[in-house]
UniProtKB/TrEMBL annotation:
Its cofactor is Zn(2+). It comes from the Bacteria. It catalyses: 7,8-dihydroneopterin 3'-triphosphate + H2O = 6-carboxy-5,6,7,8-tetrahydropterin + triphosphate + acetaldehyde + 2 H(+). Signal peptide: none annotated. Keywords: Lyase, Metal-binding, Zinc. It comes from Kocuria carniphila. This is 6-carboxy-5,6,7,8-tetrahydropterin synthase. Its EC number is 4.1.2.50. One of its GO terms (molecular function) is 6-carboxytetrahydropterin synthase activity.
Length: 127
């Protein structure tokens, strides 16, 4: 299995209005480090998983609606808790949409919320 990882970060604001989240119930900001890992069992005809520039551009496009956004007001999070897990899912689905013509490329999104906590979401196999 081959993999390519590109990264970036995104600054968001949100609240998690449920007692479960303790002090994070109130509005707060977060800077999330984002890693997108693309995998392939075999390299393509160019001997790569993906073009690195293409991978970085896809990640940029996936993150652009989130930059400095208040996720409480973001239409894709309406009626949902904007947890780090939910944010990883959102980014993973946007990347999957960008790779709809390449279902053999696996996608895992890892978000680091702080130096002690990170979350990963792996997009299920696509037909």
């Amino acid at each position: 299995m081959y993999s390519l990882t590109v990264n970036d970060h995104v600054m968001i604001a949100h609240s998690l209005p449920d007692e479960f989240f303790g002090p994070a119930q109130g509005m707060h900001g977060a800077t999330l480090t984002v890693e997108a890992t693309f995998t392939r069992a075999e390299l393509d005809e160019h001997a790569v998983v993906l073009d690195i520039g293409q991978a970085m551009e896809m990640l940029d496009d996936a993150l652009s609606p989130l930059h400095y956004a208040n996720l409480d007001e973001h239409p894709d999070f309406a009626g949902k808790l904007s947890t780090t897990e939910a944010t990883a899912h959102y980014i993973g689905q946007r990347l999957a949409d960008s790779l709809s013509d390449q279902p053999d490329v696996g996608i895992t999104v890892t978000l680091t919320e702080n130096p002690r906590a990170k979350v990963a979401y792996t997009v299920p196999e696509r037909p």
